[in-house]
Amino acid sequence: MRAFLKAVGRGVASGAALAIGTAAAAAAPPTVHALKDTTFFFRAQDGSILTLLMLEFLAARPGAGPIPGGGQPTYVGAATAEESGRRGEDLPRASARAVPLEFSLPATGEGATFFGRVYLKSGRNYTLRYVVNDKSREAIYLKNAVVDVPYLTGGFSASSVVPAERFGPADATAGPFHVGSEEVVPKAGGVFRRSELLRLYLQVYDAARDTVTSARRVDVVFRFYRVVKSKLKRHGKPFSVRAAAGPSMGLALPIGDWPTGSYRVVVELHDRISQARTSTEGSFSIVEE
90: which DSSP letter? Predict the structure, then answer.
């Protein structure tokens, strides 16, 4: 499978999706059956970067067509990660690593999401190669994505912002969502309904400690922006947390009166003790019921 991913994936531009297979694939262009990938970065104890992968297979978009024989959807996904140049070019002696993907199908049967995890080197570039086999329609979809792994080991910093289905203390069932001592389950597609709470999660690294109390004191400000005609428009008032002491933060906000559409969230962090500052960003969308 690794050789197949690499050989076929070379013909797929970064960020593009390709469908190959029978007439069923030809009838449904890649713009219909898009593979949408998202990565979230966290610092591991050994200094490497724990990277959570989320791959959406939007099989229920208009134009997908019925499954032959009226059967149930059957999807199989696989991925590899290989260190590469900034544009995805091969590096000498770099080898691809297989990344297991776990499959999740919503109760509605609409769409499909795969999740995986892999440890990558801080500050390096990697090419992620994805393949999804839609066995029910005899079609295969491919995508390459070049990711720039951030530096999270050089002082005061923060992880990615994760739009989350849920987060909390991890137990034995956390699986690919185990991040340190916590479980963080990304929200499929980063899509929230108005009746849901907007849940956002992030971790904070290397905040200074008070010399007397040993406590951390970090001010955190969440700023929200709507994407309107490809431009960012500030939405509502910033949400602030003063003198946060924990190494992680979870936010849950009601969004019943928020307009539908795409959003960006910018999180600004100020370490009161060291006076260091950093920021991190994330994205999500809101839809009707």
Answer: B
- Inform me whether the pLDDT recorded for 268 exceeds 70: yes
Q: Which residues pair with 103 in a beta bridge?
A: 114
Same domain, 114 and 198: no
Is the pTM above the cut of 0.70? yes
127 and 246 assigned to the same domain: no
Same domain for 280 and 190, yes or no, is yes
CA 163, CA 49: separation in Å to the nearest integer?
A: 19
Same domain for 147 and 222, yes or no, is no
What's 161's DSSP letter? -
Residues 128 and 167 placed together within one structural domain of the fold: no
User: 144 and 160 share a domain?
Assistant: no
pLDDT in tens, 112-124: 899 999 999 999 9
Residues contacting residue 277 through CB under 8 Å, at least 6 positions apart: 156, 268, 269, 270, 271
Out of 10-24, 130-144, 216-230, the most confident range is 216-230
Last residue in a domain, options 151, 186, 220: 151
Domain stop point among 151, 186, 212: 151
CA dist 68 → 32, 64, 276 (Å)? 18, 11, 59
Diameter of the chain by CA atoms?
Answer: 70
- The whole domain housing 180 covers 154-289
Q: Is 243 a residue whose pLDDT tops 80? A: yes
What is the full DSSP assignment across 177-229?
GEETTEEEEEPGGGEEETTSEEEEEEEEE-----TTT----EEEEEEEEEEET
The C-alpha atoms of residue 125 and residue 272 are separated, in whole angstroms, by: 33
Q: How many residues appear in the chain?
A: 289
Contacts of 127 (CB under 8 A, 6+ apart): 14, 81, 82, 84, 88, 144, 145, 146
Total domains in the fold of the chain: 2
Q: Which amino acid is at 215?
A: A
